[in-house]
Amino acid sequence: MPLGRAFSVAVAGVDGQLVEIEADIGQGLPSVHLVGRPDAVLQESRDRVRAAVTNSGEKWPDGRVILALSPATLPKVGSVYDLALAAAVMDASGAVPAQRLVGTVLLGELALDGRLRRVRGVLPAVVAARNAGRATVVVPEAALAEAGLVKGIRIFGAATLVDVLDWLRGGADLITPEPVPPPPPPAVGDLNEVVGQHEARWALEVAAAGGHHLLLTGPPGIGKTMLAQRLPSLLPPLTERESLEVTAIHSVAGILSDDYPLITVPPFVAPHHSTSVSAMVGGGSGSARPGAVSRAHRGVLLLDECAEISKSVLEALRTPLEEGEVRIARRDGVARYPARFQLILAANPCPCAPARDIDCICAPLARRRYLGKLSGPLMDRIDLAVQMHSQAAGAFSGEEVESSETVRKRVAAARDAARKRWSSVNLTTNAEVPGHVLRQRFRLPREALAPVENALKHGRMSARGADRAIRVAWTICDLRGGEVPIAQDVLQALSFRQRGVA
């Protein structure tokens, strides 16, 4: 009984698992049967694969073809298996030898004429193939640059099914990836374009240096959004490991650039205030896809007009803010996406949002209800809160202000100090440090902790809030070049937690 075998990868979240595809050609009426928990898209591949094979000049078997994808209990989603399905059938019919198929993983969707089309999640799929010990991966030519980011495995690209079958028969080699060109610098604004707002600028610098979350409140037109949009210009470029993490998420989301697939700068994501819970944290039918919080991994998530966002959407941020990842349970299993981002919230103080508080026409209850969507548990996870005020004068004075480059140097120095300090616990920024590490291995002097203990004693702060205040104090200490936070650093950190919401 003819039996063929090929390999592909199933991607769930940013994790991949090797899938073995077996093809059996038996007696009976010509038909194709797929087993192994295929979804609707994969069920349709029966017709795509058969048409691609025949239109490529190959003969499709006349008997009953059974295609089994294992592990059988693992849900199989999408069209990434098309190329491997075709190769398994050709192997079973004796049209291609099996030598090269044994150590090769095949990824790609087939068009009806045999062209190979790009699919989502090529980068995590190639990483999974390498981790499974496979020597070679064949991907569509359009995804070759993305696949080439993974080291330690041979990558080949093909334009058509004919090219792949010719290569399996020992013909000419397929295309190999070229070095990835560096992406152009992102078009972000400079901090010297923001007039005044010295307190908010300082809070932005602290947020950039420590990876802290920030809330900006104030009347419209004073620069809340403009200031938040300049946070990426203060952040250092991503490390190689962080770049691959972010690129893998964007690969699964299907939003990678064809010309510059490697993401080397912190991403900036700013969803509209009408966004849904699924769009924010991820979701969808079948296999869950990454949401805004995961696309902002290692970068910035700006929620402008956050008081207009649905309360359910805001509350859904609580878990990723605390744990740095999202776990989405769906019919086809649980998808896990990293979500370690900096949250920037911007809001007006009330619905009418006048330039001066004395001109407000909102009822007291309406004013309280407007920012009441920012619940206590959510606000407890915000490290810095700043209430911005209108510029009384000096907006056109031509005052010299620091540029992003100047501030970025101080931020880089502070981050280097934090990285060296936390290297023993394998962390890089102050915002990531667990509370027990702050309280035990890196406990502050008693005189520095006195303001925090006093706030806890009088119920003005939770234990989580105290940990976050200490993290901010470490960042302020790093920015001034100190070794250990002093009482003044802690007091300034506490002051940032007691402002922002009128």
TrEMBL record:
Gene3D superfamilies: 3.30.230.10, P-loop containing nucleotide triphosphate hydrolases
Organism domain of life: Bacteria
AAA+ ATPase domain: residues covered: 210-375
InterPro entries in the record: AAA+_ATPase, CHLI-like, Mg_chelat-rel, Mg_chelat-rel_C, Mg_chelatse_chII-like_cat_dom, P-loop_NTPase, Ribosomal_Su5_D2-typ_SF, Ribsml_uS5_D2-typ_fold_subgr
Signal peptide residues on this chain, from the entry's feature table: none
Record family assignment: Belongs to the Mg-chelatase subunits D/I family. ComM subfamily.
Record-linked NCBIfam families: YifB family Mg chelatase-like AAA ATPase
Full protein name: YifB family Mg chelatase-like AAA ATPase
Taxonomic classification: Bacteria, Bacillati, Actinomycetota, Actinomycetes, Mycobacteriales
